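In the design runs reported in the main text, the only information available to the sequence generator was the tokenized backbone. The following block is the verbatim input for one such run; it is reproduced so that readers can re-run the procedure and compare outputs position by position.
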């Protein structure tokens, strides 16, 4: 419902869904409990909550958390069965590892299952975070020329993700091109008059964003800053990375799409289908409590 805590801290997701409903028998391992997206409060309390929620192996916890977990087990606040479950799963994982190393036999991944799962997650994950001025769905009769601003972390060439979007628009008879050099990025000088000369040539300007959430000088981040000079009535932000871009970098952009998946031929097609209203956006916002255009 958009208000669950992070999965690491959620008993509903880790124990009730993953372990009980889906029958996962392996060990649940957290990501680093000290990283910025996780360590937002009391590190000891958060580590204890991760263990209570069902995490079996805790990555980079504060040492003091072990003492707190022991205290809560001894006083009954955390049932002994939670510790037994963790030890059993860790033991099963270690046994599997040892046997696999001895026999040199490893399970081959079910590539068809993985591909289908990835496709389904992408199909249902694309989120119309904002459509505040009703720019979407696009009108094919009025959308004849599209600029895709390639804000990907690449070696300077146009990314494959933006090239795929160009092909999808062109498949509909719409002229499209991808650019990175919308202004003299190395100089860091960007004039409104120059941006206006560019945007007057296009009906839609789509910023295709796939960059790390860091404050640094790079082409993608310079393009992000330049995006704020573009007319909001024809601008669409499409984001493949951190959901925090929506609130920290683009808080006032009225048309914002969260992809919640990786750029590919399939996801490019899915995106364009939704931009033109052929299919609905069914994804949810990854930010807990964020108010967005939920249908």
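Verbatim output:
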């Amino acid at each position: 419902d958009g208000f669950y805590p992070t999965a690491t801290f959620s008993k509903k997701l880790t124990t009730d869904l993953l372990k009980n409903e889906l029958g996962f028998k392996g060990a649940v391992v957290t990501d680093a409990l000290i990283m910025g997206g996780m360590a937002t409060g009391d590190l000891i309390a958060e580590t204890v909550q991760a263990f209570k929620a069902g995490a079996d192996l805790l990555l980079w916890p504060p040492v003091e958390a072990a003492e707190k977990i022991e205290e809560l087990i001894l006083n009954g606040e955390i049932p002994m069965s939670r510790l037994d479950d963790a030890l059993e799963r860790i033991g099963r994982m270690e046994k599997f590892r040892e046997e696999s190393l001895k026999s040199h036999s490893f399970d081959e991944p079910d590539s068809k299952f993985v591909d289908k799962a990835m496709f389904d997650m992408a199909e249902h994950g694309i989120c119309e975070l904002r459509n505040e001025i009703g720019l979407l769905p696009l009108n094919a009769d009025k959308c004849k020329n599209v600029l895709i601003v390639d804000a990907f972390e690449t070696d300077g060439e146009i990314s494959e993700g933006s090239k795929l979007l160009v092909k999808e628009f062109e498949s509909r008879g719409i002229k499209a091109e991808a650019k990175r050099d919308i202004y003299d990025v190395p100089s860091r000088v960007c004039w409104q008059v120059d941006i206006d000369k560019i945007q007057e040539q296009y009906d839609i300007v789509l910023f295709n964003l796939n960059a790390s959430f860091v404050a640094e000088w790079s082409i993608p981040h310079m393009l992000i800053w330049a995006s704020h000079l573009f007319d909001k009535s024809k601008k669409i932000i499409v984001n493949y990375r951190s959901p925090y871009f929506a609130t920290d970098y683009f808080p006032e952009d009225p048309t914002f799409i969260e992809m919640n998946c990786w750029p590919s031929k399939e996801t490019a097609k899915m995106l364009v289908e939704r931009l033109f209203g052929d299919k609905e956006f069914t994804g949810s916002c990854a930010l807990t409590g964020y108010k967005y255009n939920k249908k």
